[in-house]
Known about the structure:
Radius of gyration: 19 Å
Shape: globular
Distance between the termini: 25 Å
Helix content: 25-40%
Amino acid sequence: xxxxxxxxxxxxxxxxxxxxxxxxxxxxxxxxxxxxxxxxxxxxxxxxxxxxxxxxxxxxxxxxxxxxxxxxxxxxxxxxxxxxxxxxxxxxxxxxxxxxxxxxxxxxxxxxxxxxxxxxxxxxxxxxxxxxxxxxxxxxxxxxxxxxxxxxxxxxxxxxxxxxxxxxxxxxxxxxxxxxxxxxxxxxxxxxxxxxxxxxxxxxxxxxxxxxxxxxxxxxxxxxxxxxxxxxxxxxxxxxxxxxxxxxxxxxxxxxxxxxxxxxxxxxxxxxxxxxxxxxxxxxxxxxxxxxxxxxxxxxxxxxxxxxxxxxxxxxxxxxxxxxxxxxxxxxxxxxxxxxxxxxxx
Length: 346
């Protein structure tokens, strides 16, 4: 039975670092375990061009204070994003990808895209230059059940987009359903998905065990157990189309526990332990390096990292970590035992 595993240092292909005081408090948790991270642009105001991306990159670099870490910047798409500006920023190396939020779908997404077809001319330009499009895949509207929003988006919007732009690189971010998994499996090699540790470890029932669990609330929301199992199967399989994206999204404890609690789970410091636990439970530890350290770089056309981290299986479960910083940001661990821990990330 495997008690220790050493893998190439992983990257986080979906990360929220926020800004200001929260950025300064949480950046070190990512830097400790990950070499690169695709940084989400949904600040207030959002990062909508190359100049803002560069300014935000500099703030992250200063907060991280570690030359080993590289933030990979993205821009936030709106109905009015200028395709020429996107091309210029991408070709200059200011940004790595663009993020599409359906307007109102999640935290700070109000300025997002109201109709995907409005950005089809932009996607045409992105396709021509090989620029990845990262998608929060949910439809928006009170007429849609929150647990069905990903499936409807995949069936009606994403499928049509992929047909219209078959050479466009697409990442279905934080996939949460068997429907999303099946779409990615059946799509071209240019379509991939990130999977979070929390969607592998909890389902919608978990959110209500013993009462409402605000620190397990995220968007897309956790689904039925059957979807959780589909995610676990996809992540731990030999497929190259699924890779690590924590969607670590810090909020102050008071904002999570308020009458209208914020969506988002902060897991940057516990993610690797949780992923290792899942892969161990699925008897697939031999595939952890592929999922965490190889598939993402291959999709983005980057080399894997040259350094390594080591995880060890402990006899006793990992203790619940303390809240972070003066804002008291809750760190994720599931109710089920996690026995793995990063013991060397030097």
